[in-house]
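User: Let's play a game. I give you a shape written as tokens, and you guess the letters that built it. Ready? Here's round one.
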């Protein structure tokens, strides 16, 4: 959860108990929520294990221009677990069935984890 929203909730609960919660407090919450934007992070792991190293990645940041840009050679995290510890939420796990072809070498695809973070 966004730290600003968590702080707002804590303060507002105290105001609610004391009977001092006002309409402008809700307007403040509305501003906090409206300012959020979703970022999406694709991490291509070396296996379905969330502690495996990262073999590739890309980030979709809606606040940046849409022109294609190559990501840095260094992934932002060493593993999916490290990204989760930093506040990213997993919204899709890799499906191991997709990687079980015996006649095709598809290891170049990696094991795709899709994560999101609201900033």
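Assistant: Ready! My guess for every position:
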């Amino acid at each position: 959860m966004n730290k600003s929203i968590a702080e707002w909730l804590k303060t507002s609960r105290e105001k609610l108990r004391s009977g001092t919660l006002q309409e402008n407090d809700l307007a403040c919450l509305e501003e906090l929520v409206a300012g959020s934007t979703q970022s999406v992070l694709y991490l291509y792991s070396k296996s379905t294990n969330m502690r495996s190293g990262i073999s590739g990645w890309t980030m979709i940041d809606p606040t940046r221009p849409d022109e294609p840009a190559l990501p840095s050679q260094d992934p932002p995290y060493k593993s999916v677990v490290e990204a989760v510890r930093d506040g990213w939420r997993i919204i899709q796990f890799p499906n191991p069935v997709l990687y079980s072809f015996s006649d095709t070498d598809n290891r170049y695809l990696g094991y795709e984890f899709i994560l999101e973070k609201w900033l």
